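Protocol step 6 of 9: fold each sequence in the batch and record its C-alpha cells directly after the sequence line. For illustration, a two-sequence batch is reproduced in full.

Sequence one:
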Amino acid sequence: MTQTVQDSAKKRVMIKTFGCQMNAYDSQRMTEIFESLGYESTAEMGQADVILLNTCHIREKAAEKVYSELGRIKLIQDARRASGRDTIIGVAGCVAQAEGGEIFKRAKMVDMVFGPQTYHRLPQFLAEVKRRREADITGPGRGVLDVDFPEEYKFDNLPKAQAAGVSAFVSIQEGCDKFCHFCVVPYTRGAEYSRTVAEVLDETKTLLDQGVKEITLLGQNVNAYHGATKDGEWSLGRLCYALAELEGLERIRYTTSHPRDVDQDLINAHRDLPQLMPYLHLPIQSGSDRMLKAMNRRHTAAEYMVLIEAFRKARPDMAFSSDFIVGYPGETDEDHQASLQLIRDVHYAQAYSFKYSPRPGTPAANLECKLPEEVKDQRLYEIQALLKEQQIAFNESCVGKTMPVLFEKPGRHQGQVVGRSPYLQAVHFFGDLEQIGQIHDVKIQGATGNSLGGEVVG
C-alpha cells in the first residue's frame, strides 16, 4: 500500500517522437530536463502528467497527423480528468514551429507550443502553464507559445547529457542555409550554426564516462560544421580526428550530409581513422541535373559521382545510402530514368525514397506541372524495387565475412544479442549478454533484406 501511494505521487512525462534522428536527440535532451524537474519517463500516455509530441514537418500531411494524434490524447486527458488527475499537453518540434498559434485554435486542449530552438525553456513553460491554470485563464492567451529563434544559446541551458545505451547522438550543427525548394527545414530550424569544438568534446566525454562506445554526430547539414576554437574554425573532418583521440570511443558516425559541403578533410578522415565507420548517408534526391537545378540543390549528378569515387578511393570498403524524391513537379520519364541510372551506378547499401508532396511555405509548393498520383506511384515502385534489390545484394555480400559488431542489447530470444555492423546493419547472434557494450568479431552466416545473422568468433 505504501508503494502505491508513493507511485501515485510521482510526476510522469511521456514524449512521443516523430521523424529524424535530430528529433530523437532533442527528445532525449527534453527528457533530461524533465528528470531535473523530478519527472519520470513513461511509455503509457494514460500514466503521464505531461504528454509532449515532438513533431517533424518533413513527411506528407505532417500537421494533420499531429492533430489526429492530439484528438486521441484528448480522450486520455478527459479520462484522467474524470478520475481527478490533470494532464499538461505540449507540441514541440518543427510542426509547432510552422503552425504556431494555429495549434491552439484547432486543438484547444493544448497547453504549450514551442519550436526546436526553445525547448531549453521547458521549466519556464511548465511553470507558466500551471500559473495560468491556477489563475483560471481561458480562451485566447491561455496557452504558452514560443517559436522564436532566441539569441541565448540553447545548449548552454541544458542539463549534462545522459546516456541511454552504448550508442548516443551528439548534436553538433543545426539549421540550414541551402534552401532546397522542396524543404521546410530552413524555416523551422533556422540558419546554420555550429556548436564549439570544446562543447562537442565535453559532451562526448560525458557520454563516454557513462559507457557509450559509439556516437553519431547530428546536423541538418552535419558536414557544414564549422566549430569555433581559440585557433579558428574546425571542419567536420578535423573534429573527427580530435574525437578519435578520446579514450573509449570505438566508433564515430555522422548524418545528414550535403554533397556541397563535402571537403578533402572529411575524405581524408575516412581514409585515416578506423573509428570513423565506412558508411555515409549522402542524399542526392534525383539523378537528373534538370531536376537538381529545379530543386535548387546546386550540384550536378556528375559532381555527386565524383564524391562517391573519392570516398571509395580513400576507403575501398565504403558503402552509401541516400534519399530520393520521386515525382517532383515537372519530372519527365527521362528525369526518372536518370535517377534509376544513378542508383545503378552507385549501388547503394540502403536508401530512402518518397513521393514528392508540397510543404506550405516552400517555393516548390507553388509550382505547376504537378504529376498525376498514378505516375508518381509507378515511378516510386520502380525506384524502391531497384533500391531493395541493391540492399539485399549488399547484405548477401556480407555472408561469409567476419565483421566487428558492437553488442547493443538483448534480442527477442533467450541468449540472443543484437548488435550493429560497421554499415549500421542489425546483426542477430547468440552470445554473452555481459558483453553488451563491447565489440567482437562475428562471422556472418545469413542475410535478409533488413538484417544479418551470425556467430561470435572473437
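Sequence two, same batch, same settings:
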Amino acid sequence: MAKKAAGTPATVVLTTERVAHALHPYEVSPDAPNYGALVAEALGVAPEQMFKTLVAEVDGALVVGVVPVTGDLDLKALAAAAGGKRAALADRAAAERSSGYVRGGISPLGQRRRLPTVIDDTAAGLEVMYVSAGRRGLQVSLAPADLIRLTSATVAPIRAGAS
C-alpha cells in the first residue's frame, strides 16, 4: 500500500505554483481560547502576521474572510467587500464541507470549492503572513501578494474596528 503524502491541498497548490513558502508545525489545542494568539506565541511570530480563515455567508453565498488573529471579522465590511448586503458566519459543517478542511485547519488555499476570498488590508503591508496550511497544527508563511494572487482575493478593511 502506498504511503500517503504528508502534504495538504494547500501545500500542493503552493508547490505546484512554485510559490516561496515555509511550513511551521505547532501544538496548541484547537479549543483553547485565543487560539490564534497562542499559535503566534508558539511559533514566535508577531500576532499581527498571523491570520485566521473564516467562512461566512454573504447573501446566501459562501465567502472566505482572512483577518488577523488579533481581531474579529467585521461581517458588514465583509458583505460590502463581497458586493453583498448581509453576512453571517457560516455553519461549521457548511464551512468544513465546502473547504474540505476542519475548523482550526481551514486554509484559504486549496479549498475543495474555490470561494470568493477577501483578505484584510493589513496583510498588504506585511512582508510575510501566516495562514493555516490546511490542517490543525500546521501554518504556512508566504508573501501576502502570493496569497492574494492564488486566491484571486479582494483586499479590503474587513477586521472589526477598521476605518
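Proceed to step 7 once all outputs are recorded. Observation for sequence two: The chain has one domain: 22-156.
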